[in-house]
Design goal:
The longest helix is centred in the C-terminal third of the chain and has 25 residues. Helices cover 15% and strands 44% of the residues. It has seven helices and 37 strands. The protein has a domain of 158 residues: 60s Ribosomal Protein L30, Chain: A (2-Layer Sandwich).
Length: 571
């Protein structure tokens, strides 16, 4: 399988006060892992969806399997990388184009400020790609068995290589001696790569039941600690395994044995502490199926040092955990009530007792999957955010302080916001437009909306835009040393009669770009040559289709959705 170049994308929403970046995509998207770059930016990986219009729609097929093969590369998930700076601005966003759809589950930094990206395809192959600092592909490895494989994590090693941890369905391929060991169902599957991407070894571990590799970490002596699960019809257990650097097993501890399904325990993460002991986070279910947090500390010789269950008012779980330099631990995950799920941040002391917890999110499904402790002891977190009245998950990056509170952006925009609201005070008072603190200008006068299917400006729109630009452009030009870009974003409502969803999306995308261009063209032509030359460097037009429709009482408001917004981005 060949990994193709990444494609640059858009659709970005920023929160002006908190360090919260929400990247909107058509259909579900998520971020599963996050890291800090050497230039102090933050990079996260996950997946979004790629779509390709069928250019051969007139072709006929004699059977269903040929047809399914023809559309297999039209819809699906692709690895996505997002980089943000300390102003909560997305400065790089790239999408991998693979012939088979896939998800990224982990990102690991390289000494040259590049990345190892780990993931898996939807049809069961494993992926490891090495990228440079600009997310250009250096090489990619597709590996695994002939059966269904899935990666859980990609672990950084001290020699510059990585360890891929996951699961593989049992193979009985007589040509491959690795799978003639009597293992059954799913097995733990571990592959070690050198820093140059060479596979050093691949091995499977497990029982005749379902075994799943969850995570691993390298000990100070180079040995590997692996946490996994085993499930049979009568028993479920969590296991810790220690391997040599060559993958040979040193010891195996079946730590938790559950004979009842309602007492299910699921491990999520294992880390090495500064004292060379280890902590694993688990999700513990009680007899009424309410999950809560369990944290276990053990040493290199299979001794349990601490085992704490942390009960919370609502069902909760930690998906990732890290250690601060002072020995305090921070974990992120989820907390849920009857109506919604929020991202959870929790602080633990060195004895694994809870110090505090904070919840983040809206009225729908929000979850934190991964965290990275930054150079200044703040914490970068990646996950999923779902907008109100939406069923689609979006990629989400937040920054927390070391006390688990939300970090704030040091906004240069605050002064611009005050000046803009003063500049357009008359228009704001007359309900012509509104301005948000992240310098987004939104037209709210119904005379400024577009009719269904229209993109050419009406006389009223042209008149308003003429007066609007007479104020906005001189103001921006006088502050041009601080302006990175002026974005003009076109939007549509979601309807388009008589077509399927694919064409409805594409038609609206085309329409939204035409609306953006109509406004951009009119604004640009109204300026004199000097300002035109400057605008040519900062103006950016884009079309968001119906990704950001306006809502009224929880339902789409088609008229208000047919609009164009402005976004000022500062340097």
């Amino acid at each position: 399988m060949k990994l193709l170049s990444f494609l640059l994308l858009t659709f970005i929403t920023l929160n002006a006060n908190n360090f919260s970046v929400i990247v909107h995509k058509p259909f579900n998207a998520a971020l599963f892992d996050i890291t800090e770059d050497y230039d102090r930016t933050i990079t996260a990986v996950g997946f979004s969806n790629a779509y390709k219009q069928n250019t051969n729609s007139s072709q006929t097929y004699s059977n269903a399997f040929d047809y399914l093969e023809s559309v297999s590369s039209r819809y699906g998930s692709q690895m996505t990388l997002v980089k943000v700076n300390n102003k909560a601005q997305v400065i790089l966003q790239k999408l991998a184009k693979l012939s088979r759809f896939n998800k990224a589950v982990a990102v690991v930094k390289t000494p040259t400020n590049g990345y190892f990206i780990g993931g898996y395809t939807m049809d069961g192959s494993l992926l490891v790609a090495k990228l440079d600092a600009n997310a250009n592909i250096l090489y990619a490895k597709v590996f695994g068995t002939k059966n269904y494989d899935r990666m859980s994590n990609l672990v950084q090693l001290s020699d510059g290589g990585v360890l891929a941890v996951g699961s593989s369905f049992t193979s009985r391929d007589t040509a491959d001696p690795m799978f003639q060991t009597g293992l059954g169902n799913n097995d733990i599957f571990i592959t070690r790569f050198s820093k140059n991407g060479q596979i050093l070894w691949s091995k499977k571990y497990g029982t005749r039941f379902d075994d799943n590799g969850i995570d691993a970490v390298e000990a100070q002596d180079g040995s590997l600690l692996v946490v996994s699960t085993m499930a049979s019809e009568k028993q479920r257990q969590v296991s810790f395994m220690r391997l040599t650097e060559n993958g040979n097993r040193i010891w195996l501890n079946q730590f938790i044995k559950n004979t009842q399904k309602e007492n299910l325990v699921i491990p999520t993460k294992i880390i090495r502490l500064r004292d060379n002991s280890f902590v694993v986070s688990l999700i513990q279910y009680n007899q009424v199926q309410k999950e809560h947090i369990r944290v276990v500390k053990f040493d290199l010789y299979n001794n349990i040092l601490a085992d704490k269950e942390i009960s919370t008012s609502y069902p909760s779980g930690l998906m990732d955990i890290k250690e601060f330099s002072n020995g305090t631990l921070i974990g992120v995950g989820y907390v849920k009530d009857k109506h919604n799920t929020d991202g959870l941040a929790m602080l633990l002391d060195s004895s694994l007792s809870m110090l505090k917890q904070e919840h983040y999110g809206g009225q729908n499904y929000d979850i934190f999957y991964s965290l990275a402790i930054l150079h200044n002891a703040q914490v970068a977190v990646a996950g999923i955010h779902t907008d109100d009245y939406s069923q689609e998950g979006n990629m989400w990056i937040v920054k927390l302080n070391n006390d688990a509170t939300m970090a704030q952006i040091a906004l240069k925009a605050s002064g611009f916001y005050r000046q803009l609201t003063q500049l357009f005070s008359k228009e704001i008072a007359n309900n012509k437009l509104t301005i948000t603190q992240d310098l987004q200008i939104i037209f709210i006068d119904k005379a400024l909306y577009f009719k269904a299917g229209a993109y050419k400006l009406t006389a009223k729109q042209k008149s308003f835009l003429r007066n609007f630009s007479k104020k906005l452009i001189p103001f921006l030009y006088n502050n041009r040393d601080k302006i990175a870009s002026l974005d003009i974003n076109g939007h549509t409502s979601s309807e388009w009669k008589g077509v399927n969803f694919q064409n409805r999306y594409l038609n609206n995308e085309d329409l939204s770009m035409k609306r953006s261009f109509s406004v951009l063209r009119t604004l640009f032509l109204q300026q004199k040559r000097q300002k035109q030359q400057w605008l040519s460097k900062i103006l950016r037009g884009s079309g968001d289709s119906f990704a950001h429709v306006q809502l009224l009482e929880g339902k789409e408001d088609p008229k208000r959705s047919r609009r164009v917004d402005f976004q000022i981005i500062l340097k």
